[in-house]
Amino acid sequence: MSEPTPTGNPDSSQTPASDTKGKASATAGKPEQEEEIDIDLEAPETEKAALAIQNQFRRFQKKKK
Questions:
Q1: How many CB atoms lie within 10 A of CB 2?
Q2: Which of 58, 4, 63, 2 is nearest to 50 (CA)?
Q3: In sequence order, what DSSP letters do the residues of 1-53 get, joined into one string?
Q4: Which end of the chain has fewer CB atoms < 10 Å from its terminal CB, N or C?
Q5: DSSP assigned state of 65
Q6: Predicted pLDDT of residue 47
Q7: Within 10 Å of residue 65's Cβ, how many Cβ atoms?
Q8: What number is the average pLDDT over the span 1-5?
Q9: What is the tens place of the pLDDT at every residue in 17-53?
Q10: 2 closest CA partner among 39, 36, 34, 35
Q11: DSSP category for residue 55
């Protein structure tokens, strides 16, 4: 299976939004290469995050009606 992510900053492997704008314009016209994302779906932090997102979405749907 995949290796667990380091316990440091969970977003350390992601680039800031300002960096992605420069890369997007530099690669314009070239086919986009898919970025492989390695997330440990068995990690308790991942489960907690998923539940929090689902709860917020449910609240949004209720409020929307």
A1: 9
A2: 58
A3: -PPPPPSS-TTTTSPPHHHHHHHHHHTTTSPPPPPP----TTSHHHHHHHHHH
A4: C
A5: -
A6: 95
A7: 4
A8: 52
A9: 555 555 555 556 677 788 888 889 999 999 999 999 9
A10: 39
A11: H
CA dist 41 and 44 (Å) reads 8
Question: Which residue has 């690669």 as its token pair?
Answer: 27
pLDDT of residue 31: 73
Q: Which residue has the tokens 């800031």?
A: 16
Report residue 10 as tokens: 């969970």
Structure tokens that stand for 35 in this block: 């970025």
Q: How far is CA 7 from CA 50, 59, 60, in A?
A: 18, 30, 31
Contact 4, 40 (CB under 8 A): yes
**What type of residue sits at position 52?**
A
Q: Report the C-alpha gap between 29 and 19 in whole angstroms.
A: 18
